[in-house]
Design a protein that fits this description.
This protein has helices at about 5-30, 35-55, 70-90, 95-115, 120-140, 160-175, 180-200. The chain contains seven helices and no strands. It is globular and about 50 Å long. By secondary structure, it is an all-alpha fold. The longest helix has 24 residues, at about 5-30.
């Protein structure tokens, strides 16, 4: 059974925090925020989903406030992006790549923690998705953007996280191997999100409307 003490899950969570922090810092650059604004947006993006997850679970204070390991990546990332953002922004989709990485990683760690707290399969999947999209929603709202998850005509965002979280739950029910499951689920969500952006896959819209 997967659990948060598994080193792989820990590593995935830190990588997810870092990936989301980069996406937040890059958006701050595009919005012409200063260093303080960059750090705030990077931290909100990196930690927002996890804080929301912990509050829902009643795991208070949230891990972000009890373990300094979660605070270091957003601060370091802000300093790096401050000086190296021209390199990171050479391709217009860099921000979305890091966002997709965070999405894939957090849908796994969020679902794992939900299962560890005894939630049922459906509830665990929903909380995994909430963890995955929460940071991006907070980032976009603070930056004055319509959240990607709600944006008209945006490529698949929730569905990749939903599928990744479902893989984790199914593997847990089948008592599958922890490490391959965690990595495979994160990669699945990431790849689906990237393919959706590449080929413009979108969720169905009401009849008589278009996604463009």
């Amino acid at each position: 059974m997967l659990d948060l003490s598994d080193p792989v899950v820990r590593v995935l969570e830190i990588i997810g925090v870092t990936a989301f922090a980069i996406s937040g810092a890059l958006l701050a650059v595009r919005k012409r925020f200063d260093l303080v604004g960059m750090a705030v947006l990077a931290m909100a993006t990196a930690l927002g989903g996890g804080v929301l997850r912990d509050l829902i679970l009643g795991a208070t204070p949230p891990a972000a406030f009890t373990n300094v390991v979660y605070l270091v990546p957003p601060l370091v990332v802000s300093l790096i992006v401050l000086w190296w953002h021209p390199v990171l922004e050479r391709t217009t989709r860099v921000l979305m790549v890091f966002d997709a990485a965070g999405l894939g990683l957090f849908c796994v760690t969020g679902t794992v923690k939900a299962l560890e707290f005894g939630l049922g399969p459906v509830q665990a999947v929903l909380l995994g998705v909430t963890t995955a999209v929460g940071g991006g929603v907070v980032r976009d709202l603070l930056a004055g953007e319509i959240p990607t998850v709600l944006r008209h005509g945006s490529e698949l965002y929730v569905i990749p996280a939903l599928l990744g979280a479902t893989v984790v739950v199914l593997a847990d029910l089948a008592d599958g191997p922890a490490t391959p499951t965690a990595v495979s689920a994160a990669v699945l969500a990431f790849v689906l999100r990237m393919l959706a952006m590449r080929y413009h896959w979108r969720a169905p819209v009401p009849r008589g409307t278009t996604s463009d």
